[in-house]
Amino acid sequence: MKAGEVSELRNTGKQIVVFYLGCVAAALLLSLGEFQGARRSFVMGAAGYADSPAMGTGGYIDNLKFGAVAFVMFFILLEYGILRLKSRGEVTWDWKDSAASFGIYIFNGLLAPLTLIYQFGLLKLVEPLAFMEINDGLIPFVATFVLAEGAYYWYHRLSHEAPLLWAIHHTHHSARTLNLSIAFRLHTLGRVVSPVAYVPMVLVGVKPEYLLAALALSLVFQFFIHTQAIGKLGFLEHSGFNTPSLHRVHHGSNDWCIDKNYGGTLMIWDSVFGTFQREIGPIDYGVTTGHYSYNPLRIMLGPLRDWWRGDFAREKVYAERAAKHRKEETG
């Protein structure tokens, strides 16, 4: 490992420690406060859920997809119609990529009951080990949402920086276009690994029900930002919330897009940790190594095979290699 990589790894480690220490401090403040409220009536009642395994990390979005497929398809078709109007009939839409995304979505749907039980069960398993107790109420829920966004930020960022995690997350970024159907293009193993990022939050007293409700709401929000149909949103681009424009940057393979904008609903953690980037030009979507496959199985398993063989690296490495090659060619 090169000296620069070691230094970057140490810096990332320090930032992660600072974040989770911040979670401890926030939990301590909340545990000392007198925040009272009906947890189930405030969060579960509003979302229409009971305290069950269905409230897994992707529970809300899964119910959205399976319980209201027509609702989701309506927005996908609406997006396509808007793009046709904006481009006067010439739409850059890869239906093969969308078909691959739906194939992955169906596969994940078949395994959803098992993954949701695992996600919910893991956090409930560590809940008795919490060394602080946070009361119920609006303020604790809002605090949970903000901190959960931070934990999501770090899991998402590591999914781009750590080769094995990138081999899993590569599935989501392998599409060469960006539209709402790409929101479903998620590797099944991501559902197995991602809850680990939230275990420290439960250990400091964050309620799993609050945490999972916050994550589910964030996933629903993220469905709507996977689009090119919506341009920049004026003052909202500076509001601290994620937007389609900011998320387009995250899906770009341009040099100025790589390793940027990891936030889910909130962009404050990108600003805090130096990965925030505005949309400043045309974006090339997909991964730096080009088109991977239209086969859902190869999209999910191919990067893992390449990683196992030692022939897989994060996007930044490929971008640096390409830049070095261009420099050598130009003399």
Mean residue pLDDT: 82
Assign an overall shape. globular
Unreliable stretches (pLDDT < 50, length at least 5) are: 34-67
DSSP helical segment count: 14
Going by helix content, strand content and strand pairing, the class is mainly alpha
Extended strand count:
0
Question: Could you characterize the architecture of this molecule?
Answer:
With 331 residues, the protein is an all-alpha fold. It has one domain. The chain contains 14 helices and no strands. It has helices at 3-32, 39-47, 59-67, 69-86, 95-126, 138-161, 163-173, 188-193, 199-203, 208-223, 244-250, 268-273, 296-308, 315-329. The longest helix is centred in the middle third of the chain and has 32 residues, at 95-126. The chain starts with a helix and ends with a helix. The model is unreliable at 34-67 (pLDDT under 50).
Summarize the model shown.
Helix content is 61%, strand content 0%. It is mainly α. Helix 5 packs across helix 13 (296-308).
Features:
331 residues; mainly alpha; 14 helices; globular
Architecture blueprint of SSEs:
Blueprint: H1 3-32, H2 39-47, H3 59-67, H4 69-86, H5 95-126, H6 138-161, H7 163-173, H8 188-193, H9 199-203, H10 208-223, H11 244-250, H12 268-273, H13 296-308, H14 315-329
